[in-house]
Amino acid sequence: MSTPTFRFAPSPNGRLHLGHAYSALLNEKMAREAGGRFLLRIEDIDTLRCTPELTQAMLADLAWLGLNWEEPVLRQSEHLADYRKAQRRLKDLGLLYPCFCSRQDIVRQAGNDTPRDPEGQPLYPGTCRQMAKEERETRLARGDACAWRIDMKRALAGLDEPLVFIEESSGTAVSERAHPQDWGDVVLVRKDIATSYHIAVTVDDARQAITHVVRGRDLFQATAIHRLLQRLLDLPTPVYFHHGLIDDSEGRKLSKSLGSRSLGDLREEGVSPAEVRKALGFL
User: Is the overall model pTM greater than 0.70, yes or no?
Assistant: First the structure.
């Protein structure tokens, strides 16, 4: 029987806030109560936004909270070759195709009745999936920038049984049906960083033998993509626990993009780690 293994996996593209603290503390608590392992993963595949300075600040914030994790810490930027290997396997299966469209192209083509993905973005209409082979090869040979999308219809056609996963956030283990088709031909290799969150997180959860993925409720729908990739790449499926989110005073989810007060801000204001833990329900 495998050792219960949990991970906290932030991206150092901004300072951590109370939402990150809650997720980190919850992972550590659940690992401790299960007699398992607590790992830290630095999800820094976006090497332009994720800087060494922000990584060091993140580590300092987590240490200030009193968290301890196993060493060495996995840094995704050091494992890009592994993500490329997974991408090649999907390409060899005939499931990825290059997409030369920009986000503006897709939004411009969308109408009011265009189906939307779980995040509310227009589903990709398959423009480049329908491109003639000769044109595709010409543009690739010319070096035109492209992302790589999964041919969702083809990927699902090869499955012999429904995709399911165990969700434990309600206090009981519930079998959830995954619906990756809701995302359409989602991007699995971005133009700018030559991989994607979906590929990297799926490969690394398997690499680190993660048994329990504990993360925010805002990632619940993305689990469907990860379940599909696990099946296609013959990787194990963890148990999932999608916790509630910490909101600001206006009822919005705390986020870096909204400038939510960081743990560093709280430290400078003289707030103690014990006060943060108590406010988040961990004392």
Answer: yes
Q: Distance between CA atoms of 160 and 58, rounded to whole angstroms?
A: 43
- Name 282's Cβ contacts closer than 8 Å, sequence gap at least 6: 25, 26, 29
Q: Are 172 and 122 in contact (CB under 8 A)?
A: no
- 217-235: per-residue pLDDT in tens? 999 999 999 999 999 999 9
pLDDT, position 255 = 60
Shortest CA distance to 69 belongs to which of 32, 39, 99? 39
Interval 120-129: pLDDT, tens: 999 999 999 9
Kindly state the DSSP code that residue 253 receives in the 8-state scheme.
B
- Residue 263 contacts residue 16 (beta carbons within 8 Å): yes
- In contact, 180 and 188? CB cutoff 8 Å: no
How far from chain centre, in Å, is Cα 273? 27
The span from the CA of 71 to the CA of 239, in Å, is: 23
Which of 3.30.300.20, 3.40.50.620, 3.90.960.10, 3.30.1240.10 is the CATH number of 1-75+247-283? 3.40.50.620
